[in-house]
Structures are given as structure tokens and as C-alpha cells.
Automatic annotation (TrEMBL):
Residues 4-298 form the Inosine/uridine-preferring nucleoside hydrolase domain. GO terms for biological process: purine nucleoside catabolic process. Gene3D superfamilies: Ribonucleoside hydrolase-like. The gene is rihA. GO terms for cellular component: cytosol. GO terms for molecular function: purine nucleosidase activity. Transmembrane segments: none annotated. The keyword Heme does not apply. The lineage of its organism: Bacteria, Bacillati, Bacillota, Bacilli, Bacillales. Keywords: Glycosidase, Hydrolase. This is Pyrimidine-specific ribonucleoside hydrolase RihA.
Amino acid sequence: MKHIILDCDPGHDDAINIIIATAKSDIFNVLGITTVGGNVEVEKNTLNALKVLELLNSDIPVYKGQSRPLVKEIEIATEIHGDSGMDGPILPDPNRKEEVLHAVDFIIETVKNSKEKVTLVPTGPLTNIAMALIKDPSIKNNIEEIVLMGGGTFGNWTPAAEFNIFVDAEAAEVVFTSGIPLAVFGLDVTHQVIATDDIVDRVGEIDNEVAEFVKELLIFFGQTYKDFFGINGGPIHDACTCMYLLNPDMFTMEEVNITIETKGEATYGMTVVDLLKTTGKKENTKFATGVDQERFWDTFMDTLTLFNK
Ligand code: BDR
Ligand code: CA
């Protein structure tokens, strides 16, 4: 059993990751979902998390976190995710609210008090995680691993930087220099799992309301990726994290050093990935470079089928 906290900014692909974690309740004990300002404002991301959980009939608690990055102002991605942060499908307003406790304090208290080590799964800007590590560095000892979506050897928000890292590079630097084991799913691998039309059709053949919701997410997300990037579908970036935790051997991982660029004018938020070990710096990350696509999509479809009545 993996004891995990999903730290996210739903977000189409964040929502899909929540669905995978919830579906595989034999593997994942989701201790809580924490939200952060990212794709849209933290209030909207929090509402989206609650809506998804209601669809899933799940009572996993939700904790609202940081509304803005450590140092700079927030930058959001309505071009990709729409004004609500999860445009496309329409879900009813949820019957419950987020918990009173702040996400950063939830992370600290939960990690400290857990009998088993906790795996953190961030799929948005790393602000909450960095804040927790700054506020109480002792939690490091009880974190099994941080499995995150972010970065890559190319960018999608600037030519050099991926969105999650760009939004809060200072927070990313705190995480990447923490000494905690990291597994990093950047654009190199997430652009190998693009939900093209044939994938959307396969999801459409699964006869349950969660799969129907995922199909609508993929249609909206796929269209913005076509319009914005000229790609033939939406990469379901964030889902790589829980898919990895389900089947680590599905991915090719390289032990590398990653340094976060926080000063460069054209390169702010870049993850400098030392694939050829040119710096001699100690490896601090397992970095995903490949995925068995057939296995990935088969597992994805099987997981959605678990919601059949
Ligand atoms: C990341 O940015 C967001 O738009 C997605 O949810 C994902 O976490 C991809 O760059
Ligand atoms: Ca995200």
C-alpha cells in the first residue's frame, strides 16, 4: 500500500490523476488532496478537486494551499484549461467544502504523524511542498519519495521552462535541493502519452460516468493543445505520476542531476537535466525518459473500467 498526498491544481490532467489514485484503492491510500494556485486560482482548483471527488463518491479530504508562488506573482494557464481550470465537462457544485486546515499544515502534520512513510505526489507548482519543507524540515525523514510532474529538457511555457516549474522556480529549487528521493516526470515523457483521437475513442467505449467525464476532459484539453501548440491531442502529463507508482517498470528512468534555473532572463524555471553527466554533480533525481505506451494506455483503460457498476 502506498500512502500518498496528491498536491495539485486541477486541471484536466490533475483530475485524471485523482481518478486513477481513487480507482486503485487496493494500491493507494490517499491521505488527502492539497491544492495550490497554478492552472487557475487556488479557489477554483480547490472547487474542481471537490467536484471530481463528488463524482467519484469519495470522501477524501481536500485542503486549500498557497494562492501564489514563494517570490513572484502567480501566472495562470486559462489558455489551456479554460476559465474554470477544468472547462469542458459540467459537474454539479459539490455538497462539501474543503477542510479548515491549511494544506501546508496538513502536509506537515500528516507526514509527521504517519506510522508509514508518505509519498508526496505534486502535479502543480511546488509552492505547498516547499513551504512545508521550509516550515518543518524534519518531515523529510518520513517522506518516502516525491513523485512529481514538472520540467523536462524542453519547455512549454517558455522555450526553456515547463509550466509547473516556471510558475514557482524558487519552490522547485527548495524541493530539488532537499535530498529527498525524487522521481520526475517532465515533458520528455509526458509528450509520449498524448490522448490522440483513437485514445479518446477507446475511453468513449467504456460505459460508466467517470469514463464519460474523462472523455469530455480529453476532448477539451486535446482541442486547446491543438490550438495552442499544434499537437494532435492533450498529453496527460500528471497521470504519469500515479501510473508510475502503479507500475514503475513501465517507465525508463535515468539517475541524473537536475538544477533549477532561477536567475536566467530567458531560462527562468528551466530544469537543467545533466543527462550526459557533464557537471560531475551528484545525481538528485530519477528522471523519466521513456514509457511503454501500449502498457500505459491498456492500464489506463483497465483503471477506468473499474468504475463499471
Ligand atoms: C503541467 O501544467 C499544467 O497545465 C498541467 O496540469 C500539468 O501539471 C504541464 O506542463
Ligand atoms: Ca497540474
